[in-house]
Amino acid sequence: MNITDQKLVDQTIDLVKNEKQFTLLVLKNLQEISERKLYLDYNCSSLFSFCVKILKYSEAESALRVGAMELLAQNKPVEKKIVSGELTLSGAAAIQSFFKEETKDDKKIFSPQERAVIIDEMTGMSTRDIKEKLNEKKATPKPKQYTVVLDEEAYQKFMKLSKEFGDASPSTVIKKIYQYIENHKQEKLDKIKRQAEQEKEKAHHQQSDTRYIPAAVARAVITRANGQCEHRSMDTGERCGCKDQLVFDHCWPFALGGRSELENLKLLCSRHNFRAAVKIYGAEKMNSYAKAQ
Ligand SMILES: [Zn+2]
């Protein structure tokens, strides 16, 4: 091609201008064809199928043109915006689909002024931004959607899960997998918690078997003992009076049915408590027990 760079660019700019002019002309013709229901002559049930079958547009191209045409038919200012390029076919189609959906079943009515304001607001924006902005304006905005790309192996596994969950949607499959993992985590945590509780209960049980004394009884014993060892010397009857490491001692052993009552309890220092145990269980047993500790 023997053409300068500048000329090439200028020429392309001109072509695109013409292209937009032609686009507008095509839209206007489509509008007329639609009004005359001319597509019926070609055994097409709609303008859309006329665009596909007779004009040889793809389905996507046809949908954009029909949408843009409908917007244009109801809003005169759209004409200029399409020629200037401020509004693309896809942008116009997106706006039209918004109006259509919002006014469906007389849900809402837009005055011509309201329509003009919305179209002006969307002018100059990308189709993506238009769709997002319009979604915010919807009475019931559609939840945001995301595209995820899977490789072949992940896709196969995904489809298998989907089938197992009763042809579940991708969102449902992901939520189910997530829930499963969470439950699994929770199960493990619960197991650890249960074990800890069981151990605690076991320890508490062992304690209450041998040593559990009601708080009121314990207080009464301490008061009576004046907070000192209650052992009395075998010969003089003198109180030990030691205040260190005091424990409650069952005069008649708990293991033999001795009860945790004021009359059966003595406050003893650890040495006299040990001595009392030796009297009952024997030195051998208690010494080996003490060594083991
Ligand atoms: Zn003592």
Distinctive features:
293 residues; two-stranded antiparallel ribbon; DNA Binding (I), subunit A; mainly alpha; binds zinc ion; rod-shaped
Topology at a glance:
Layout: H1 5-36, H2 47-53, H3 59-74, H4 78-84, H5 89-103, H6 112-122, H7 127-137, H8 152-164, H9 170-210, H10 215-225, E1 247-250, E2 265-268, H11 270-281, H12 283-292
Antiparallel strand pairs: 1-2
Helix pairs in contact: 1-3, 1-4, 2-3, 3-5, 5-6, 5-7, 11-12
This protein binds zinc ion.
What does this structure look like?
- The N and C termini lie far apart (101 Å).
- The protein is rod-shaped and about 130 Å long.
- α1 crosses α3 (59-74), α3 (59-74) packs across α5 and α11 (270-281) packs across α12 (283-292).
- It folds into three domains: 5-137, no CATH class; 152-209; 211-292, Orthogonal Bundle (DNA Binding (I), subunit A).
- Strands 1-2 form a two-stranded antiparallel sheet.
- The protein has helices at 5-36, 47-53, 59-74, 78-84, 89-103, 112-122, 127-137, 152-164, 170-210, 215-225, 270-281, 283-292, and strands at 247-250, 265-268.
- 63% of the residues lie in helices and 3% in strands.
- With 293 residues, it is mainly α.
- It is built from twelve helices and two strands, in the order ααααααααααββαα.
- Zinc ion binds at residues 229, 231, 240, 242, 268-269, 271-272.
Short description:
This protein is mainly α and 293 residues long. It has helices at residues 5-36, 47-53, 59-74, 78-84, 89-103, 112-122, 127-137, 152-164, 170-210, 215-225, 270-281, 283-292, and strands spanning 247-250, 265-268. Helix 2 (47-53) packs across helix 3, helix 3 (59-74) crosses helix 5 (89-103) and helix 5 (89-103) runs parallel beside helix 7.
